[in-house]
Amino acid sequence: MINLITAPRGTYDIMPDRALVWQWMESTIRQVLLSYGYGEIRTPIFEHTELFQRGIGETTDIVEKEMYTFADQGKRSITLRPEGTAPVVRAYIEHKLYGVAPVTKLFYLGPMFRQERPQAGRFRQFHQFGVEMIGAESPVADAEVILLAHDLYHQLGLTDLEIHLNSVGCAQCRQAYKTALTSTLKAVADELCTTCRLRLDRNPLRLLDCKSPSCQAAVSKVPPIQDYLCPDCDHHFKGVLALLDQVKVKYKLSPKLVRGLDYYSRTVFEIINHDLGAQNALCGGGRYDGLVEACGGPAVPGVGFASGIERLLTTLEQKGKLPELSGAPQLFVLPLGEQLTAVAFELATSLRRQGFFVELGNGTKSLKAQLKSAHKSGAALTVIIGEDEWQAQQVTVKIMGDGSQKRIAAAELQKEIASLISPLGKKYQ
Question: Which H or E run includes 72?
Answer without folding.
Answer: none
